[in-house]
Amino acid sequence: MEPDERLSRALCIISKTFKTFDDLEELDDIFSDLRSLQIAMHSLNQTNRMTLLRNFSVKKLDAGKRLFKKGDPSACIYVILKGALQMYNHESPDCSDMTLVNFQTKGALIGERGILKNFPRSLTAIAAEETYVLVLEAKLFKLFLGKEVHAEIETKKKIIDQFIIGISQYPPSQKERLAYLIDFDMHRRGDIMIKQGSVTDCMMIITEGSCKLFQQLGPYKKTVSQLEKGSIIGDETALFNRPSSFAAVAMSDVVKVAKIRNDDIKSLYPPSVVQSLRDSYNIRNTARHKITDFSHPCLKLKLDVQNPEEDFPLASLTAREKINRIKLRTPSLKSPTFSNESARSVFKYKLQELREIPTLKLSRLIVRDKPRSNTSRF
């Protein structure tokens, strides 16, 4: 069914005074691509799910029309069914000093924070184009969805605290506002999460599973690293406005990511946090290119760091001391006491030391018994 047909059917069903079970099942299917709503409803039993679907209404807004104003009571939540909303902040009652804060599109859940915290509206919402929104009263939202939405927000706040470098110095209220900007997404094994050379629209934090990062060099693919929970991808575009140097492919059966839009990073994240994220990217990129070089006829470990303070600006003093201590001469195949196997063991040990430096965030090592080329890397 085409999007316009789905919208038309939804409007038709919602307008009915009496809705049959089949009507509600069809409505549930139509709403299946409204991700925020599906996440909030996923644990409901069938009875509660149908009760909730029966109580949605729809509101249509022409372009430029206001949905609600800052300071209005938080009387209901909205889910964008079609179109988009521009979210503005302002101090003057006449809205003469409005500043665009956010841009919400299809599937976004709007207004839940005010209901959960018993706050009035903190922003003004205006339709960017012809927009349809689902409407649910606050009491029904609290009864059926409040716990799920609250739990999701708490999860998002933990992601901000754990994985956004430099955010710890900011107050909980600011971190919570940033948490509301996160969306969740899921990929299956083999999915291309990022294409090399593409311009991504968001930065992704892996929250479950793993993905492989690689570069296409002519006809050859060079594995760069395997990234797991807490790793960030897509940040090259988000932080530096340039196409991705790497491709990312999902390696686990399920890879879950937290997505933060580039526009939100640029407009709403504190400059010091953005700079910390840039420094972190540079550290990881430096590590990928400087630390290892496995080649034929012997394995080599290169750690060419002349100025740890410059190459690893976010590393602690202890971490920098560890970096300076990691030294290994190139083993010679002619040495009777230094075989390929012993070399491999030493290299693994040294790389484990590097992995224990948290600011480097190195991935697991890939070692081949018979190196196929002089560009094999971890």
CATH superfamily of the largest domain: Jelly Rolls
> What is the strand tally?
18
Distance between the termini: 46 Å
Q: What is the alpha-carbon Rg in Å?
A: 25 Å
What CATH calls the topology of the largest domain is: Jelly Rolls
The stretches of 5 or more residues where confidence is low (pLDDT under 50) are 290-304, 327-339, 361-378
Tell me the β content. Answer: 15-25%
State the strand order across the main sheet.
Answer: 1-8-3-6
**Assembly type:** single chain
- Secondary-structure arrangement, i.e. CATH architecture of the largest domain: Sandwich
Mean pLDDT: 79
Which CATH first-tier class of the largest domain would you pick? Mainly Beta
Report the principal-axis shape. Answer: globular
User: Major sheet, described briefly?
Assistant: 4 strands, antiparallel
InterPro entries: cNMP-bd_dom (IPR000595), cNMP-bd_dom_sf (IPR018490), RmlC-like_jellyroll (IPR014710)
Protein name: Cyclic nucleotide-binding domain-containing protein
Domain Cyclic nucleotide-binding: 40-147, 166-254
Pfam families: cNMP_binding
Q: Brief description of this entry?
A:
This protein is an alpha+beta fold and 378 residues long.
Provide tags for this entry.
378 residues; alpha+beta; Jelly Rolls; 3 domains; four-stranded antiparallel β-sheet; 18 strands; globular; disordered C terminus; RmlC-like_jellyroll; cNMP-bd_dom_sf; Cyclic nucleotide-binding domain-containing protein; cNMP-bd_dom
